[in-house]
Amino acid sequence: MSHPHPELKAAPPLPEGGLRVVALGGLGEIGRNMTVFEHAGKLLIVDCGVLFPEETQPGVDVILPDSTSIRDRLDDVVAVVLTHGHEDHIGGVPYLLRERSDIPVVGSKLTLAFLEAKLKEHGIRPRTVRVREGDRRGFGPFDCEFVAVNHSIPDSLAVAIRTRAGMVLHTGDFDPHRRGRHRPARQLPHPRQRERHLPGDQRTDPVGCPRGPQGQRQGARLRARQRRRTRLLLQHRQSADAAGRLPSRSGRGSAGRGRQGCQRQDGKVVAQPFAPPAAGVVHQGGGHVLGGG
């Protein structure tokens, strides 16, 4: 869990045409992901999640990102972009919208469905903007393009943020071992190829470009633009700095042992996994979904 750093000085004024990226949560901890992009006097927020308390924090329901630095600048926020629907990425949105309820909230169909149900409990009617992979939308000085990524929840998106300072690719969460999407007919490249997929590579279909010669010409133009302007990759990945490889979830490691244990039981087994894909629960449970969360 991160802690305040009072020794850090205030950020200097942003140079004209510059881009500032500030993480208000999510670094060195699993939760409360929130990143703020500042450009041309405006702010774009990517994700706004919560962190769940530890056993040493009784009485605490959730821990929010520290948004003190932007509290006086909420009128400058042009949008909140949500990469996917997990609580550590959307759970803080109701508390942000309490401060300013008309901030546009951008996300995929499933992500916004989760959020709208949550906001209904808070009595907030959000101003939402639904996007899907391949869409490109402008929010103030930020030009955002959305790309599908593989994760344990459907409709997860990465976002490429273009400004005069260059392009930043924010991946959101993704699973490097999850090669296919929840729609098996469409396979996405491995995350190491993500930047080639956005925008385009002759070995993969560029996002938003048709197949064939026309798509290759469009992809060539997009690749040339990418080479000129891509400046920063922000990649979310738990334990990314740990050496070694992740075990497969399809028969080896803890998942495989759990499945074998269920098969040896005569009675009913009720499982409560953390944020699983439905297809994975069916697979591990031998075709029967017993529980999920």
Describe the main β-sheet briefly: 6 strands, mixed
Number of helices: 7
Which structural class do the helices and strands define?
alpha/beta
**Percentage of residues in DSSP E strands:** 15-25%
**Number of E-state strands:** 11
Low-confidence stretches: 179-210, 282-293
Please give the order of strands in the largest beta sheet: 1-2-3-4-5-6
C-alpha geometry? globular
Straight-line N-to-C gap: 23 Å
Helix content: 10-25%
Query: What is the subunit organization of this protein?
Result: single chain
Mean of residue pLDDT? 76
- Output the helix-strand order: EEEEHHEHEEEEEHHEHH
CA radius of gyration is: 20 Å
Describe the protein in words:
This protein has 293 residues and is of the alpha/beta class. The protein contains 7 helices and 11 strands. It has helices at 87-90, 93-99, 109-121, 194-197, 213-229, 253-263, 278-284; strands spanning 19-25, 34-39, 42-46, 77-81, 104-107, 127-130, 136-139, 142-148, 157-163, 166-173, 230-236. The strands form 2 sheets. Strands 1-2-3-4-5-6 form a 6-stranded mixed β-sheet. The chain has a 5-stranded mixed β-sheet with strand order 7-8-9-10-11. The chain is globular and about 70 Å long. 32% of the residues are buried. Mean pLDDT is 76; it is low at 179-210 and 282-293.
